[in-house]
Amino acid sequence: MSQSGLELLFQGQNLPRLLAGFGVTLRVAAVVLALGLSLGALLGALRTLPNRGLQVVLRGYLEIFRIVPTVVLLFVAYYLLPQLGGLNLSGEAVAVVTFTLWTAAEMSDIVRGALVAVPRHQVEAGAALGLTRAQQLRFILFPQAVPLALPGTINLATRVIKTTSLLLMISVMDLVNVGQTLVEANSHLHPTFAFWLYGALFIGYYLLCAPLSWWAKHIARQRKAVTND
Amino acid sequence: MSWSVIQASLPAFGAAFWLTLELAALGIAGALGIGAGVSLVQYFRVPGLHQVASVYVDVARNTPLLVQLFFIYYGLPGLGLKLSAPVSGVLGLIFLGGSYMAEAFTGGYNAIPKSQLESGAALGLSPRQLARFIVLPQGLTAAVPGLAANVIFLVKETSIFTVIAIPELTNTALDLIGLYYRSNESLLMLVVAYAIILVPLSWGLTQLERKVRHVTIGA
Amino acid sequence: MTEPLLIVNHLAKAYGQTPVLEDINFTVNKGEVVALLGRSGSGKSTLIRTLNGLEPFQGGTLTFAGQAIDPTPATWLALRRRIGMVFQSYDLFPNLTVLANLMLAPVQVAHQPKAQAETAARTLLTRFGLAEFADRYPSALSGGQKQRIAIARALLMKPALMLFDEVTASLDPEMVHGVLALMTDLARADMTMIVVTHEMGFARKVADRILFLDDGRITADMPAEAFFTAPPTESARNFLASMTDR
């Protein structure tokens, strides 16, 4: 047992298995982001409409997904979805559904906030020029709202990536779950193996999320510099 | 729904409820302390320390609590540092929350209009005096909404403690599902328990935000 | 009594490659009121802000009360006790009561005893007709009240020179009069003042001299009455015409 815990990390099938788990993590994150951000954008736009009933429903949806911890949402879906008409979903599918609904709820608030932050008179000025409603949205409202929504959306993306670590709880073989399995199989070989392996997961998530966070910060800072002028 | 299962589960849920509150309170208090300290180090650009503070905030914010907990609870013993599960949980929550709180404090300081600082400087206040009389009191007020959001966030994050087998609410619910093979009852109690904590907390924090808001508006 | 208080010599400032102030020369004597006029973007706010170190400058020298100013943070910190400044946005500190706003600098910067600072603050508030607001927070006050308190706050440091940067520009018209009346009283009491303003009536009536800024340069420096009766340049004529049209 001359090898160190760090060397063990690169032995045998350890690294390929970790990378496969990383692949699952990335796949879930990508699908959830694609579905959740689009659905959220749509719901956010709907939340600016004057229909009162719709507002109550969408606001209630947001509040429920905000107040209940994501872990709990995940377990509720995990146990409840199969009861609905004998639906037999894989753990990964359950997670994708749950995370997508959660992401969409958060995204709807970001989009709504950005849309209402564009001054009303901007759109009215467009209307006064004779633009159709669709043209007002396309040329005036959206171009001004997108930059407002961008930092929040990027930060939401990092939260989604971090949330994928919960996959392990419903037995999906994601990066963390593979890591845990390897720790159980290898820890007796070297006591520092868990340290290096979880250290590697730590760094892996950091490398995924940090550039996004920096980007969001950069955009927000740029805007601040412009508006201070 | 079986009423008897719910009744039989109540004592375990009660204990988990108080444990969750206790761990969350410790974690939030620690996070507020670390966050305030880190934000001040960053604000005053304390030589040597502020780079460390920035790296800490960057790392803690960009990694999941679950991985942080595994690292503390399973990884650190490899270096001879063995911590109990509840201590690991609270430390993890402080590590994560400290960075979020630091960002909220900093956001508050940065929300102060430049003209406030200029008019203070024009009166002859030194940078230290500006911080003490203008930036900190106004910044703390401006930081309240961000801090409040983090408090809620951190309470919810305690649900992740289940992965290191701390018998908090989520862990207890899962245990009971295994015990009685009845998922609906346990899940219902779990959601209700979080609602009992989070709904009043969120309402109270909103009241607090409302109360401090008048101080910052209308300079 | 023509004792110079502030001498500005060949002052120059640029943002990157863009010059904003070029070869600025003027002197302000003790007790004098100088109005700094010019179009938006002519550099007048930038100029007045360089005079107490809020804007750095790249060339030239400033001399205050016979001493050349070495433009370091420490020098400015010391000088700001003697040069008061009031801004367009009043900027009372919203976290402090009116009285605490007034006492902050006298106690913390000038190290006056609290009782003495409070007496001075209350006396000045009474003189300005604002005594009833002493214990209120700024958010409860109107713009005109806030601006008069901002002036009081600067005066309590007993400055040798007062700088006013468009102090009536964000006030409702009915509030402007009270603030201008206060500044007129100050001028009559021989306060040395540099005033950036768009109030032509005030400048003509109260200022001893006009400095006219055009594109970052001073193109007129003359007695107020002469400037208004016979503006010396085409640009100054157009400026005055545009101001009286309003």
Approximately how much helix is present in the residues of chain B? over 70%
Q: Counting H and I runs of at least 4 residues, what is the number of helices of chain C?
A: 9
Work out the strand percent of chain C: 25-35%
What is the H level of CATH, i.e. the homologous superfamily of chain B? MetI-like
Amount of helix of chain C: 25-40%
Largest inter-chain interface? A-B, 39 and 39 residues
- Sheet with the most strands: spatial strand order of chain C: 6-7-8-3-9-10
* Gross geometry of chain C: globular
Strand tally of chain B is: 0
Any idea what the radius of gyration of chain B is?
A: 21 Å
- Please count the beta strands of chain C (DSSP E, at least 2 residues each): 10
Low-confidence stretches of chain B: none
CATH architecture of chain B: Orthogonal Bundle
Query: How far apart lie the N and C ends of chain C?
Result: 37 Å
Secondary structure tally, helices of chain B = 8
- SS-derived structural category of chain B: mainly alpha
Oligomer: heterotrimer
Biggest sheet record of chain B: none
CATH topology of chain B: MetI-like fold
Poorly predicted tracts of residues of chain C: none
Notes on the structure:
The complex is a heterotrimer of chains A (about 230), B (about 220) and C (about 250). Chain A is mainly α and about 230 residues long. Chain A is about 80% helix and about 0% strand. Chain A has one domain (about 5-230): MetI-like fold (Orthogonal Bundle). Chain A is built from nine helices and no strands. In chain A, helix 2 (about 15-45) packs antiparallel against helix 8 (about 175-185). The longest helix of chain A is centred in the C-terminal third of the chain and has 36 residues, at about 195-230. Chain A is elongated, with a radius of gyration of 22 Å. The termini of chain A are far apart. Chain B is mainly α. Helix content of chain B is about 80%, strand content about 0%. Chain B is built from eight helices and no strands. The mean pLDDT of chain B is about 90. Chain C has about 250 residues and is of the alpha/beta class. Chain C is about 40% helix and about 25% strand. Chain C has a six-stranded mixed β-sheet with strand order 6-7-8-3-9-10, with helices on both faces. In chain C, strands 2-1-4-5 form a four-stranded antiparallel β-sheet, with no helix packed on it. Chain C is globular and about 50 Å long. The model of chain C has no long low-confidence stretch (mean pLDDT about 90). At the A-B interface, helix 4, helix 7, helix 8 and helix 9 of A face helix 2, helix 3, helix 7 and helix 8 of B.
